[in-house]
Amino acid sequence: MIATRRAMLALPALAGVAHAQERPTRFIVPYPPGGPTDLVGRVASAGMQPSLVENRPGAGGSIGAGEVARAAPDGTTLLVNASAHVIVPHLQRNMPFDALADFTPISEIVKVPLVLVVNEAVPARNVAELIALARAQPGRLSYASSSIGGAPHLAGELFKLMTQTDMVHVPYRGSGPALQDLLGGTVQVMFDSLASSAGHVRAGRLRALAVTTTTRLPTHPELPTVAETVPGYEMTTWYGMWGPPRMAPALATRIQEGVARMAATPEAQARFASMGADPVASTPEAFGRFVRAEYERFGKLIRDADIKGE
To answer: Rounded to two decimals, what is the model's pTM?
Structure first.
């Protein structure tokens, strides 16, 4: 267990959001420190005081999430997780919890769009040309991802299904090694985060073809969406907050209001912008509907693409 006090964030505490309690609110992040889920958890924890961020990695996030599922519903133990929360249950058997029934949705925190990038040697200048190239050379193009079942992997499989193309998936252990092989030409295509790819795109080492959101990004209006060529295409990574089951609706709402105030601060927005994230801060009801819809959508995609867990 790695625990870091919220004070290390150097973000201002938000008045009026803390619970009347002596124990700090525990924000469980089910991944190691330093990654995007950890960053979101630490920024989100600034909305409550006192607070403590605990990294509980392992089993695709199910160890940390399972701890929250078993916690008391008093608001002192919360889960910050990525969209993997509703993906992993479709890939692993014998999960120690039900991703829908064993948690109280509190708020979506941010969305992180992906960008479709290709190695500079790939002779495709836009999505339509990439589709034509893949169709002309089935099985010759390969696309990298940071892991099996992650959003970049699912983005590639959704692209293949919707365009009826054949590209070979090459999974890596993390986006760093995947990006290095993309730069080196070992693989040709990747759905990556804007934050990690932008520098290479500016330097001309990678070519950005499109973003995976349904509308163009205000920060990169020159980039088209995949959906402009492939209608209906969408794939983003998102991060949210859950409480244990049977949490009182009023308590969930109060915590969500703290998340919303946190997300509106310049400090939080600057931290989120560094990872290419767009703050959302949805209500518990809206987040619950969204989570259920994403659970069904990802489940169908995993079945249709015949994706197997590691």
So the answer is: 0.87
226-285 pLDDT tens trace: 999 999 999 999 999 999 999 999 999 999 999 999 999 999 999 998 888 989 999 999
HSE of 42, CA atoms in CB hemisphere, 13 A: 23
Q: Do the Cβ atoms of 162 and 87 come closer than 8 Å?
A: no
Domain 112-228, what fold?
D-Maltodextrin-Binding Protein; domain 2 (3.40.190)
How far is Cα 77 from Cα 104, in angstroms, rounded to an integer? 11
Question: Which residue from 196, 93, 200, 112 is spatially nearest to 151, judged by alpha carbons?
Answer: 112
What's the CATH code, domain 2-111+237-304? Answer: 3.40.190.150
Q: Give domain limits for the chain.
A: 2-111+237-304, 112-228
174 CB neighbour count, 10 Å cutoff? 11
Give the pLDDT confidence of 174-186 residue by residue, as tens digits. Answer: 888 999 999 999 9
Closest by CA position to 90, among listed 143, 157, 175: 157
Which residue, chain included where needed, has tokens 């073809």? 209
Nearest to 186 by CA among 159, 168, 202: 168
Please tell me whether residue 288 adopts helix, strand or coil conformation: helix
